[in-house]
Amino acid sequence: MTGERRSEYTRTEGSEVKLLHFIYSRPDLDEIRGNPGKVLDLIEEFEKQYWFPNVGRTKGEIVIKLIEEHRPRKMIELGGYVGYSAILFGDALRRHGGERYYSLELNPEFAAVANRLIELAGLGDFVQTIVGRSDKSLHKLYTSGEISKVELLFIDHYKPAYKTDLQLCEELGLIQPGSVIAADNVLFPGNPPYLQYVRSTVSEKRQAAQKATGFSKDGFSEKTLSKYMGQDSAPAFEVVGNPNIVYQSTPIQPEGDPDAIEVTKCVAVEEES
Ligand SMILES: C[S@@+](CC[C@H](N)C(=O)[O-])C[C@H]1O[C@@H](n2cnc3c(N)ncnc32)[C@H](O)[C@@H]1O
Questions:
Q1: Which atom of ligand 1 is closest in space to residue 88's alpha carbon?
Q2: What is the C-alpha to C-alpha distance for residues 188 and 162, in angstroms, rounded to an integer?
């Protein structure tokens, strides 16, 4: 969603199922079937009534350009919600020769809505929704051999988990030269711990890793912390990441948008001296 934002918006309970009724009751459903653009248009139309935390077309364009430029075979997103970004990016990935889009979503109800819309958009064979917390799902994608490298990762879920999930990927050896990470909402509501991490030098990260005291929720508002995850929000794995990874990281802020996507590229992995 783009435009002026005065505070963090909140969702209306039950609006996700209402979205399904809104779309599936359309008289022109047969023309919508198999058409990702039309499904996205309808989600956007519904958003005039109910606020949805979707990435939107403007910021979405930044990620589509990354797909066009890097041509990943497989792409992963953390935080699928009702499937807007999975349809937008899954469609782009398929058109650019990709093989699979994994959408990791904590809430089974949101994932069920997403699956109905992904299927309607004709992407049911291409986009795989994985229900559960992202750290456990990422770990499973790795141990099952499905993913051996992060090619393009879109992060858009629980804000404190941006950094710890990236560090988990680093520890699993999934972040390699050429890996690209696009993180949403880095200006609104903001994610200072994540930005500090991806913008740090190797020597700064090595020092921080030595002093690491575990998972922290510092740097986030109460509202951000209460979103999505309950008491059980600590990462399932203790991680410090791999401080030897060299990143180039820059925010991309569309004109007139109060938010930005941080695009982070792994350019090298330094040897320990
Ligand atoms: C901002 S919404 C995602 C919007 C979506 N990427 C889009 O642009 O259409 C964030 C989603 O992340 C999910 N989420 C929050 N914490 C999560 C976690 N630890 N693992 C997986 N999903 C999570 C929430 O349930 C919510 O659906």
A1: 9
A2: 14
